[in-house]
Every structure is written in structure tokens, then in C-alpha cells.
């Protein structure tokens, strides 16, 4: 009987968590936070696919389940522009199946979040956010080593004087990637990666909680309680039938 109860509870928890992972978020507006820097031209396999692209951290605002949301994210899709629309919350494995890379991306976002929170200078914040975005693209797209100045995906500045923060951002991105690959930085496991996915929009990644939200726990506890009530009623009915 106890095994049945536990199995049912586990199935319920899995259902709740699965529903949570696929929650829809309606993004009604977006901006850069901190303000964006011009990173130059975005290169993919040796060809420019975007000129004077912005690099930085997004702030998305909108609604989820009727309530307001305010999210800080980074781009994981260089082939789509970002615009308001509906995103589905999905596991990061949808765009990044490699578990080692997932751990690297989590490590990057955890440390970048701490660096941004501790930095008071707005110009420095902009470079940190831009470096983080460049490093995100490296982790997502590169397979033979990371270098924000070359490889499969990188940014290039034909006129460095016109984009003075681009080179510092690339240099900082490479230092972040080195810290991750040599394990000077490691994830502290208090956060998780959350993918905001859309086929027709620029999918985003952000930090999420490593454990279910309080509302999810409440649903799980309520569900386990209902299962327990059903089992108790069944036992009473069986006892009455045999009396």
C-alpha cells in the first residue's frame, strides 16, 4: 500500500514539474539591462550574418498564468530577431544537449549574475553583460574550443574606434570561458538553466530556481494528500466489507 502511494505521488510530482517546465510566458516588451553595447559584426562560419549587433542582457516583461513576470535573459538563437510574443519554458537540453556544456553555461550565468550585482559602474556593467552574451554564444555554438575572436561564431569590429567597448567585451568573454574550462569557476547548484523557447522568435536562456517553486510544492503536497485520502477511504471500505 505504501509503495502504491509513493508511486502515485511520484507520478503526480512528475506531472506537475513537467507542466511547470512547459509553462507559457507572454512577453509584451523587452529592453536591454544594462544598456547594450555595439559588438560589431556577427560572424558565422566566416560570413557576416549581422552588422553592428547588440550584445548584452535582455530584460523581458510580460505575464505568466495571469501574473506579471520580469525576466533577465541572454540570446541562444543568433538566427532570429527578438520581438514580443509567446515563449514556452523548456529544458535547456532542447538547444544544448551536451551535459558538460550545460554545466558550463550554468556556471557562466551564475558568476555573471554575481558580477553584475556587485558592479556599480554602468559602463563596466555593460561590458560584463556583453561579455556574458558573447560567452553564451561560444558555449552554444562552438565545438572545438572557445574564442570570442574567432571560430564558428564570433564578433568582429571592422572599425574598432567606432565600437570602443567591443574589444574589452571579447577579452572579458575569453577570460570567463577560461575560468569555466579550467574550473576556476564552478556552479554552486543553487540555480538551474531555463530555456524560453520559440520557433518564430529569438529563444532565450536565464537562471531559474534549482528546486520547484513554492506553488509547485503546494500542488504536490495537496496531490499527495488527496492520494492519501483515497487510500484511507479504501482501507475503511475493505474493513467494513470483511466485518
Summary tags:
43% helix, six-stranded antiparallel beta barrel, three-stranded antiparallel β-sheet, globular, alpha+beta, disordered N terminus
Descriptive notes:
The protein has one domain. Strands 1-6-7-11-10-8 form a six-stranded antiparallel beta barrel. It has a three-stranded antiparallel beta sheet with strand order 4-3-9. The protein has 243 residues and is of the alpha+beta class. It has five helices and eleven strands. Mean pLDDT is 86; it is low at 1-21 and 212-224. The protein has helices at residues 2-21, 99-118, 122-141, 166-181, 214-242; strands at residues 24-32, 37-38, 41-44, 47-50, 54-55, 58-64, 67-75, 85-90, 153-156, 191-197, 204-209. The protein is globular, with a radius of gyration of 22 Å.
Contiguous helical run count? 5
Low-confidence stretches: 1-21, 212-224
The largest pleated sheet is described as: 6 strands, antiparallel, barrel
Helix and strand sequence: HEEEEEEEEHHEHEEH
Secondary structure class reads alpha+beta
Taking all residues together, what is the mean pLDDT? 86
The end-to-end span amounts to 20 Å
Share in helix: 40-55%
Amino acid at each position: 500500500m505504501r509503495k502504491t502511494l509513493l508511486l502515485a505521488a511520484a507520478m503526480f510530482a512528475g506531472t506537475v514539474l513537467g507542466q511547470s517546465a512547459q509553462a507559457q510566458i507572454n512577453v509584451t516588451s523587452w529592453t536591454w539591462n544594462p544598456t547594450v553595447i555595439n559588438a560589431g559584426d556577427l560572424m558565422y562560419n566566416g560570413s557576416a550574418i549581422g552588422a553592428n549587433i547588440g550584445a548584452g542582457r535582455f530584460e523581458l516583461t510580460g505575464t505568466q498564468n495571469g501574473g506579471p513576470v520580469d525576466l533577465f535573459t541572454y540570446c541562444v538563437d543568433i538566427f532570429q530577431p527578438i520581438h514580443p510574443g509567446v515563449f514556452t519554458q523548456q529544458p535547456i537540453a532542447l538547444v544544448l544537449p551536451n551535459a558538460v556544456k550545460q554545466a558550463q553555461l550554468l556556471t557562466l550565468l551564475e558568476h555573471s549574475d554575481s558580477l553584475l550585482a556587485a558592479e556599480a559602474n554602468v559602463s563596466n556593467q555593460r561590458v560584463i553583460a556583453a561579455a556574458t552574451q558573447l560567452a553564451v554564444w561560444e558555449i552554444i555554438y562552438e565545438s572545438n574550443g572557445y574564442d570570442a575572436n574567432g571560430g564558428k561564431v564570433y564578433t568582429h569590429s571592422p572599425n574598432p574606434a567606432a565600437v570602443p567597448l567591443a574589444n574589452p567585451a571579447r577579452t572579458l568573454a575569453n577570460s570567463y570561458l577560461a575560468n569555466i574550462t579550467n574550473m576556476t569557476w564552478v556552479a554552486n547548484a543553487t540555480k538551474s538553466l531555463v530555456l524560453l523557447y520559440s520557433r518564430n522568435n529569438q529563444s532565450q536562456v536565464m537562471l531559474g530556481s534549482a528546486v520547484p517553486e513554492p506553488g509547485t510544492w503546494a500542488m504536490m503536497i495537496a496531490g499527495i494528500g488527496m492520494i492519501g485520502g483515497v487510500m484511507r477511504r479504501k482501507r475503511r471500505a475493505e474493513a467494513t466489507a470483511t466485518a
